Amino acid sequence: MLVRMSTSTAGPAIQVRGLEKSYKELRVLRGVDFEVARGSIFALLGSNGAGKTTVVRILSTLLRADAGDARVNGFDVGARAADVRESISLTGQFAAVDEILSGRENLVMIARLRHLREPGAVADDLLRRFSLTEAGGRRVATYSGGMRRRLDIAMSLIGNPPVIFLDEPTTGLDPEARIEVWDAVKELARGGTTVLLTTQYLDEAEQLADRIAILHRGRIIVDGTLAELKRLLPPAEVEYVEKQPSLEDVYFAVVGDAAEKE
Amino acid sequence: MATHFLADTAVLTGRTLRHVTRSVDTIVTTAVTPIAMMLLFVYVFGGAIDTGTVPYVNYMLPGILLITIASGIAYTAFRLFTDMRSGIFERFQSMPIARSGVLWAHVLTSIAAIAISLVLVVGVALLMGFRSGAGVLDWLAVAGILLLFTLALTWIAVIPGLTAKTLDGASGFSYPLIFLPFISSAFVPTASMPGPVRFFAEHQPVTSIVDTIRNLFTGQPVGGDIWVALGWCAGILVIAYALADLTYRRQIS
Question: Where does the record place the ABC transporter domain (chain A) (predicted)?
Fold first, then answer.
């Protein structure tokens, strides 16, 4: 018991070392390493097919890695899958909500599955926090993309799991809905939850993340804070116009380098 | 984990049952095709089929009930397939719940939905003049056999529901099952069929099940048929369950 307590509270929230995964001939992950500190927002940035979703699926016990070591909340994802599932929530790439149920029914269902007392009160509280009280009684099929995502994230919060995975939370949303989702994610982090989000939008990582890792061709090629990433480029030269490199510049510079080496 | 199995399955079954009650059309369509067949056979073909002293609607109802079950499981596969495709399935799989509860919820819902369809079909049959001398015990035996057959076919439906690549693939498997009662004693006495067809008809599962239910309805002794019928149902159930369970484990690991 003592050992279990110590493994679940000490150390980083997520630890990944040498993670490898292939689908037949295709090597999706070729040795991924990173760590996520407790209570931080970590963005895994990469283009389509870079392997972001594969990483999330392995960390959320939906997929087994071929090699390497992955721990979530101190628990090995392979050997202690049940403990990992107690520690996490997954908001997948496609809104993981039940379209036929109402928003409130979705929340009540998850609260029941987490064996919470007063699932109705939990649902009403979350509807309020995510500005869905009015829509709560309506079927989710009638919701807008932004509302669906907010409900999705609200469902992930039930039971206060210490680690939350958000796989491309704003893909396919209009700009207004994106900002709604960003606010929801910031709200999570304020409560001390560790968030790992994947995104292909550079500004999203820039807006939300304490730390950013760029996943490219199955490897993490850069990992640091936004300031550290920006320092990778030579300092801005003062000519007539001063221009700071944006994260986008950094991204294409490092991605381009790695591509040439291969 | 095991202590949560019942509670989790109950919550998940509540969810899938709502899917059914909010699309009542699926129950009605399940019942409509067998009812149409019943009308067609009783009022069009029935006059030409010699079933002795037994009224034709009494004769063919057992077969119609099996067709109802076979068309009902197409929706079971459909519901499971839709779930697999949506993100909600992955959410459940990444939660600390009894994982097999997700599958059992679909199975229990399938039984409930098909039971309602069966009641509808029997209701129409009563309007068409179906009468039975069966006592309470006979009816319970009929219900038990239908339940076992539904359970067996439902577990078959789970396999395409889990593995299908397209919606048509998920529900198309039920067509041969719907067709099977036609090559049995369900509509025509097997004695009128040519040799090889007759051999097939008399040795396939539907005939023993139909004969058993027919005898129960008419208050006749069921003889050895009931054991053959139960044997088929139990055999199909065990094999289908084992295959479905194996498929499910492969999918989620």
Answer: 14-242
How big is the CA angle at A132 (ends B87 and A84), to the nearest 5 degrees? 40
Our separate counts of H helices and E strands in chain A read 10, 10
Q: Which chain B residue has its CA at the smallest distance from A95's CA?
A: B87
d(CA A210, CA A227): 10
Give me the pLDDT at residue B183, please. 86
Q: What pLDDT score was predicted for residue B154? A: 94
CB contact under 8 A, A96 and B18: no
CATH number, residue A23? 3.40.50.300
Interatomic CA distance for residues A246 and B40, integer angstroms: 73
Residue A43 has pLDDT above 90, yes or no: yes
Q: In this predicted structure, what is the pLDDT of residue B234?
A: 93
Residue from A59, A106, A113 whose CB has the most chain B CBs within 10 Å, to mutate: A113
Distances (CA, A) of B206 to B51, B203, B211, B213: 18, 9, 8, 11
**Inter-chain CB proximity A92 and B11 less than 8 Å:** no
What ipTM, to 2 d.p.?
0.83
Task: Return phi, psi of residue A139, to 5°.
Answer: -65, 140
Q: How far is Cα A105 from Cα A100, in angstroms, rounded to an integer?
A: 10
DSSP letter at A33 equals: E
pLDDT tier, B70 (very low <50, low <70, confident <90, very high otherwise): very high
pLDDT at B194 over 90: no
Q: Do B87 and A96 touch (CB under 8 A)?
A: yes
Bigger pLDDT: B107 vs A131: B107
CA Rg value for chain B = 19
pLDDT at A72: 93
Average model confidence (pLDDT) across chain A: 85
Per-position DSSP letters for A101-168, written without gaps between them: SBHHHHHHHHHHHTT-S-HHHHHHHHHHHTT-TGGGGSBGGGS-HHHHHHHHHHHHHTT--SEEEEES
Q: Which residue has the tokens 């919470």?
A: A116
Contacts of A111 in chain B (CB under 8 A): none
Among B5, B91, B102, B251, which would you mutate to test the A interface (most chain A Cβ atoms within 10 Å of its Cβ)? B91
B86: chain A residues, CB-CB within 8 Å: 94, 96, 98-99
Inter-chain contact A85–B90, Cβ cutoff 8 Å? no
**How far is it, in rounded angstroms, from Cα B60 to Cα B56?**
6
List the single residue in A with minimal CA-CA distance to B22.
A100
- Host domain of residue A171: 2-261
What's the mean pLDDT in A7-28? Answer: 82
Q: What is the pLDDT of residue B145?
A: 93
Q: How many distinct structural domains can be found in chain A?
A: 1
Report domain extents, chain B: 2-252
* Nearest C-alpha in A relative to B101: A113
Cβ-Cβ contacts under 8 Å, A95 against chain B: 87
Cα-Cα-Cα-Cα torsion B190, B192, B193, B195, nearest 10 degrees, comes to: 100
